[in-house]
Structure formats: structure tokens, C-alpha cells
Amino acid sequence: MDWARHLLVIPVLLPLVAGATLLLFDERRHTLKALVSVASTLVLLISAIALLRMADGTGGDTLSMSYALASWPAPFAIVLVLDRLSALLLVTTSVLALAALAFSLARWDRGGPHFHSLFQFLLMGLGGAFLTGDLFNLFVFFEVTLAASYGLLLHGSGSFRVRSGLHYISINLAASLLFLIGVSLIYGVTGTLNMADLALRIPLVAAEDRMLLQAGAGVLGVAFLVKAGMWPLGFWLPPAYMAAAAPVGAIFVILTKVGIYVLLRLSILLFGGLSGELAGFGSMVLLWGGIATLLFATSGVLASQAMGRLAGYSVLISSGTLLAAIGLGNTAVVSGALFYLVSSTFAAAALFMLIELVERAREPGADLLAVTMEAYGDEPEETDEPEDEEVGVIMPGALAMLGLSFGCIALLLAGLPPLSGFVAKFAMLKGMLAAGSQGGGIAASVWFLVALVIVSGLAALVAMMRTGIRTFWAPLEIVVPRVLVIEVAPVLALIGLCFAMTICGGAVIRYTDAASTELHQPAVYIQGVLGTGGVEK
Amino acid sequence: MELTLAVAIGVLTGSGVWLVLRPRTYQLVIGLSLLSYAVNLFIFSMGRLRVGAAPVLGPDGIANPADYADPVPQALVLTAIVIGFATTALLLVVLLVSRGLTGSDHVDGREGR
């Protein structure tokens, strides 16, 4: 048990060491680099699963485990905290990372320098952000993630990537500054940065300081909403994700979820049941912001001509749904939302990877009529790469396989049975309606949200079908793309996982239920970090 | 002193925001730098302004903590400076690449209408 505790630091330490080691090797030894990178990601996945079992396995719902770095005591030094929510996100991240990494081995990892190092640093930042129990440390891990993501977004170069990279970096730098302002305001009022300690001190804040605290929390929230892509703050997202290389786009899907995770964690921990008069701060903003995001992304999906843009907007749909679900702040809805988070992350990531494979099949210039293609058409780096570099087993029946995968992803994004997208949306809608019927009538905003979640699924279905017909059925002479097994396998694996989530839906829902219940009991978290019962001090 | 600092932060932030909203990449990078200076000063001021107070307790044990400056914001500022510096340097490289690829220093890579 004592050694098992140290497992908590693996998701931060392992990618850091692997990424740093990879810097020492020359770019030409890419087999070695790929091997180290894959091994590190594999170990990461195994330890994430072990952490998940650890977070879940203790039976009772009163555990969140903390790990004091260098054994400094909790409220003064940085701690890592593991509970069901962070374990779930760690597993999602490492599964996604393994898939994206496998996909990149076919060609993308040789499209520019230091791909594997940047990838490992990205994983380190993500692992740290999901585990940390300290607000400023969260900022540091955010920056590590973002710095790596800047490099990855530019991977493969080309003027379109550089231009969207420029916008992406600028907006994220500005958001980071807001993050700092929010953190320092909160520190100025409460005198602590430890999240558990904050949850204890916020109810004690004097009435005249309360406005300052709210301002700080609001500014901090805006920073996360920028990352999550809420409506007026999310215009940067589709072009940036569209510009990224396929495996990078796939791993970027989890980046928006970091913002969602922090909002979920902090809004419930800091402004949940314990916080007295400040309870529920900002939940209306999240609800209506999520609804606005859903509206915007739904019309975006319908208007998209290019597949990359379609995928970008489907990430926004997922963000909007999750934000609105968090805004409702109801245990059952949040449980459904966690299921939805995993399912929609896998589906969107699979879509990003599939797009690149499918685009190979289309004759160049087929999209010239499409307005949005203007930006996508000039990618010199695609032709720069010598074709004979692609060694490996070529996938037989590629087109059928791609078409089938495309159909499955459409079902997942639209939330139609029999795949996990349906289970997720069903769980969320059930939670929304059940909450209303207990408390005497369902609020108009909830009805609106329910309708919108269903309509957004329909829009995704329409857009996917239109693209599918244009890609797979309409062309008279279809070029069968050269697709390697290692490129299709990650896509199929992610879809397979969604299948598995449907079949084992009961077990997954039980886990997300437990995670959501645990999340809504801030005392459990505080107990895990500070070792005190909660309300004293 | 409070007034001077507040005005300084306000002026830096105002100029920074204005520059960030300008269309040239050079203005963007200067604007972001000014904003990060303002934010660093702001973090610093959140530890309350003190003159002639040490942030580190002496070897003779704990005296009255009220005689000392708060060390945490100072540590935070240090981290924020390092991170801000590194990311701004990265942004600068991207700006140069963008200039080289598009031949324009407009943030969109081409002149607006």
C-alpha cells in the first residue's frame, strides 16, 4: 500500500523523464525514439488503470487520496490528489495518447523535429493538471501543456498551420494572464492556494471581501472557459484544430476537456454546498454559456464544408453540452456528463484521425467549390513527403473499413443507439428531467437544453451524412487510398472502446455515478487532502 | 505608494490591451509583454505592499509574522515571469516564421480590407 501511493506521481514523472531522455537522441534514430515514446505511453496507460482501480477499489465512497510531494505538509506545499474523477480523466488521456501516438508512427512523427518529446511533455502537463490539488501548480501544468501544444500544433509546418498557430498561441497567452489575475486575487483574499484549504476558507471570507473573491473566481473562470471554447470565447478553436496534423488534432480533443475538468472540480468544490452564501456562484453563466455554445456549434456543424472544420465544431458541441450540464449542478446529470465526456472525446479523436485517411481518397481539388476549402487547399507538406517512406502493412479493403468507421463515428456524435453516445445522452437527459420532476416542474431553461442536446445530435447526423455521401458515394472515380494497418487500428480501437462502453454500460455508469457523488461531497476531498473532517478552522 | 502602483498597473494593462487589439504582429507581442508586466506587478501587490520587510524568517525562530512580507506572491511572480518569458519568446519565433511564410506582418497573414 505504501508503495502503491507513489503511483500517483507516475503520470507526471514518467512522461517528463521520457520526454527529456528523447531530447538526447538524434532525430535520425526515430525507431528508438518511437520505441521509448510508445513504451512510456503504455506504462502510463497501465499506471492510469491501476490508479483507477485504486480510486474505485476501496469500496466506500469516502476516499480521495493525496500525495504530498517531497512529504511537505498539505496546506503549505503542493499535493497531488487522486479521486474517481481525476482517475477517469487520466485513463481517457492515456488511451487517447496511445491511439494518437500509434497513428503518428505511420508518418507524422517524422514530419518535424522533436515530435515525441513534445508529445510526452503534453502528457505530463495533462497528467499534472488532472492530479494537482494546488491552484498555482495547476497554472504551471496548464502552461506545460500549452507550451507543448504550441509546438505540436506547428508540427508539420505550412503557412496555414503557422497562421492558426499564431492565433492559438496569442489567445492562450492572453487567457493565461487572466488565469494569473484570478489566482492572485483569490490568494489575496483567502491567503491560500490549496484547493481543499480554499474550500474551507471561502465560507469564512468577510462580507466586504466577498466581491473581490467573486471577481477573482470570475476572471479565473473566464480563463478556463477560453480553453473549453465557450461561445463568445471559442472562435479560435475550429481553425486551430483543423490546422493541426491528424494525430495532434486527436490528442487536442482532450485539451478542451482540461478546461471542463477544472470548471467541474472548482465550481463544485469552491462554490458547492459548503460555501454558504456564495453557493452556486457562476452556475447560471455556465448553463447559459453552454446553451449558447451549443447553438453556435450546431449551426457551425451544419455550415461546415471541410471535414476538419466539422470535427472542430463537434468538439465545440461536446464542450457546450458539458458546460451546460455542469451549470445544472445535479449529481445525476454530472454522472451522465462524465460518461458523455469520455465517449465524445473518443469519437471526436477518432474522427480527426479518420479525416486524414479519408482525405487521401478524395481527388485533389474536389473541394475547390467549397468556400472554406480555400484555406485548406494549400498544404505543401503533404506532397513533400516521399511516398516510399510508408513502409508497413497496407490495409486491405481500406475504403469499406473507412466508410464503416465513418458511419460509427456519425452514430457516436449524433448520439444514436446502439453506440455509447446514445447511452451518454440518455443518462444526461434522464438526470435533467428527473431533477425537474422531483422539485415540482421542469424549468424552461432545462426544457430548452434538452431540446438543444437532441437537435445538436440531429445536426451532427445531417452534417456527417452529407459529408459521407459526398466522400464515399458521390465521386464517380474513387481513388482507393493507401492506408496502413497502424493508421486504421487506432481509429478502430477507439470505436471499439465506445462499443465496449455500451456493452459494459452498467459498470461505467456505476463508476461515473460514484465519481459524481464523490465530487458533490467536498468534505471527502478536503478530508483526503488535509486529513481533517472539514468544517472546523 | 498604493496609488502609484495602481496607476502603473492600470496604464500597463490599458496600453497592453490596446496593443493586443492592433493588427500588427509586433504590436501584438509588445502588447502581450506589457500585459504580463502588469499581471506580474498585480500578483506582487496581492501580498500587500510592505517596505523594508524581509520575506524570510530569521534563524532565531519565528517572530511576529506580521513583521515580514508574504513570500508566496514573490515565488509566484518568479514562476510567472519565467513562464511568460518562455512563451513570449516562442510567440516571437512563430511571428518571424509567419512573416517569412506570408510576407506580411499582419496577424492574419494578409492585409485586411
Structure report:
Chain A has helices at 2-5, 10-23, 30-57, 84-104, 115-131, 135-153, 159-190, 195-201, 210-228, 237-243, 246-271, 283-303, 307-328, 331-361, 373-376, 380-384, 398-414, 420-438, 444-473, 485-503, 505-519, 522-530, and strands at residues 65-68, 79-82. Residues 365-389 and 533-537 of chain A have low confidence and may be disordered. Chain A contains 22 helices and two strands. The radius of gyration of chain A is 22 Å and the shape is globular. In chain A, strands 1-2 form a two-stranded antiparallel sheet. With 537 residues, chain A is an all-alpha fold. By secondary structure, chain B is mainly α. Chain B has one domain (2-51, 71-102). Chain B is 64% helix and 0% strand. Chain B has three helices and no strands. In chain B, helix 2 runs antiparallel to helix 3. Chain A binds chain B through residues 136, 140, 143, 146-147, 150-151, 154, 157, 159, 162-163, 165-167, 169-170, 173-174, 176-177, 180-181, 183-185, 187-188, 193, and chain B through 20, 25, 28, 32, 35-36, 39, 42-43, 46-47, 72-73, 76, 79-80, 83-84, 86-88, 90-91, 94-95, 97-98, 101-102, 107-109.
Strand content of chain B: under 5%
Shape of chain B: elongated
Structural class of chain B: mainly alpha
Structural class of chain A: mainly alpha
Query: What's the order of the H and E elements of chain B?
Result: HHH
Biggest β-sheet: strands ordered side by side in the sheet of chain A: 1-2
Would you report the number of β strands of chain B? Answer: 0
Rg of chain A to the nearest angstrom?
22 Å
Q: How many H/I helical runs of chain B?
A: 3
Main beta-sheet annotation of chain A:
2 strands, antiparallel
Count of helical stretches of chain A: 22
Order of helices and strands of chain A: HHHEEHHHHHHHHHHHHHHHHHHH
